[in-house]
Amino acid sequence: MPRPLSQDQKLIRRILRVNHAGEHGAVSIYSAQLKRLPSGANDLEAWLKETLSHENEHRLAFREAMSSRFAKPCRALSVWSVGGWFLGSITSTWGRTGIFACTAAVERTVHAHLEEQIAFLRHHDTELAALVERIQIEEISHLSYAEERLGPKSGLAASLRTVISFATEVLIALSTRGDSIRLRYRLQAAIEG
Ligand SMILES: [Fe+2]
Ligand SMILES: [Fe+2]
Q1: Domain annotation for the chain: domains and CATH numbers
Q2: 93: phi then psi, degrees, rounded to nearest 5
Q3: Can you give the pLDDT of all 193 residues of the chain as single tens digits?
Q4: Residue 158 C-alpha to ligand 2 middle, in angstroms?
Q5: How do the residues of the chain divide into helix, strand and coil, expressed in percent and rounded to 5?
Q6: Separation CA 53–CA 45 (nearest Å)
Q7: Which ligand sits nearest to residue 23's alpha carbon?
Q8: Which ligand places an atom closest to the C-alpha of 104?
Q9: Which ligand is nearest to the CA of 51?
């Protein structure tokens, strides 16, 4: 009879499931922005292609990390595909401001989640902690690139970032059926405990 999972093992599986789904959404966002790149933002094509290749690598790395930890992908991956594609498409209609505001909002939200995960994983799964830290370096580079180019805060950029950050958190919570919220509470409890 299989031994019941410890709380730590459950948390590690949740981290993998949420992260893999998030990378799936990121692939959809950047794919849509590339596909619908407005003519005034053609110079962003190379950066979007490179960023998309990073997100594909991240998704694969989290998927590969699942098997040895007996974790399974989120069952609502299609929500991430549709949500990501919608977000990428709509933000590209605002051109450079929309694309950079989207990247800044999404990557800032992701960054906050990764910080908590690393603090927990350093004590419970050093191999996975190292993977998340490696991926976080590239996520920070996406965030910095977008924030540097957003320039002085415009009303449009600030509004888009607020709406997109909120939408990203809601999408994460809905698609994981509240897992991301429980994960945040449990990670904070585990880190503090
Ligand atoms: Fe990523
Ligand atoms: Fe990213």
Answers
A1: 7-192 (1.20.1260)
A2: -70, -20
A3: 566 678 788 889 989 998 999 999 999 999 999 999 988 888 999 999 999 999 999 999 999 999 999 999 988 899 899 999 999 999 999 999 999 999 999 999 888 889 889 988 999 999 999 999 999 999 999 999 999 998 766 788 888 889 989 888 887 777 666 666 777 777 777 767 6
A4: 19
A5: 85, 0, 15
A6: 12
A7: 1
A8: 2
A9: 2
